Amino acid sequence: MRRLPPDSERPSRTRRKLAAEAVVELTHQLAALPDTAFKGLPLPQELRDEFEQVRKMKASAARARQLRHLAGDLRADDELLAALSMALGGQRRLSHEEALRFQQREELRESLLDPHHGDEALSALEQSAPDLDHAALHEQIERYRHTGDKRYYRAIFRLLEKGGLP
Question: Is 140 helix (H, G, I), strand (E, B) or coil?
Answer without folding.
Answer: helix
